[in-house]
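This part of the workshop introduces the protein records we will be handling. As an example, a complete record with its sequence and its structure tokens follows.
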Amino acid sequence: MSAPDDERRVEPFDDDLEILPDITGDERGTGWGESAFDSDDTARLLEERPPHWG
């Protein structure tokens, strides 16, 4: 027979264990196909500027 939950011993929980990450891979630039070494996006943004921006 099992003991009631009030009498059951529970071991301390390890709070340092990361179950789910704070930021997932698809929230980072590399998840969208960007290079990990691209720190300055100015040239890319100017190249991909829509035609109606002149």
Notes: The radius of gyration is 25 Å.
